[in-house]
Amino acid sequence: MARYIGPKRRLSRREGLALFGKDAKILERKGAIPPGQHGLRTRRRVSEYGLQLREKQKAKRMFGILEKQFKKYFNEASRFRGSTGLKILELLESRLDNIVYRLGFTQSRMQARQLISHGHIRLDGKKINIPSHHVKEGQTIALSEKLSDNTQIKKALSDNQTLPEWLKREATLGKVLRMPERSEMEQSIDEQLIVEYYSR
Q1: Is residue 147 within 8 Å of residue 137, measured between CB atoms?
Q2: How large is the angle between the packed helices 191-198 and 67-78, nearest 10 degrees?
Q3: Fold observed for domain 9-92
Q4: pLDDT tens-digit profile of 109-160?
Q5: Is 2.50.20.10 the CATH classification of the domain at 95-178?
């Protein structure tokens, strides 16, 4: 699956949000100035379409996926009864790379994606190398034994990261207890704007 490999900090500046771990310091220094040579100029009033587009772009960049796959998630979510926006967020949160990150095994979703791609993650005891794999309730996620002495992993595990209530972790073994509720999902995303964008 394709992925974005360009400059990442400019994405955080564009969205005005620390999308990747260490970008908070950059935003503190640069403020709300968007990237580019015209970033300091006074920006025009953002249209309704512009707000919808920015919200969609923010969600895509936060979870590290491209347009084709994101549209696929929307189409899949729209087939379910109930809130389409809520289902989109549930599909994003239940991705394997996101759950590895949420369990505190890594410091970013991109790092989680790399671990999975390199075959260092076990899902119910089986090696899996697909970052977008949909994890179901009751499944277990574990790090391979090769990573037990990895300094990056040790650093991530030692951080006092608050574990969501829908997940459980013991050392390098995690489990999905249930699907997350809206209050436990990414709070900086307004899913209704994403639905409005694709429903035009």
Answers
A1: no
A2: 90
A3: Ribosomal Protein S4 Delta 41; Chain A, domain 1 (1.10.1050)
A4: 888 888 899 888 889 889 988 999 999 988 999 888 887 777 877 777 777 6
A5: no
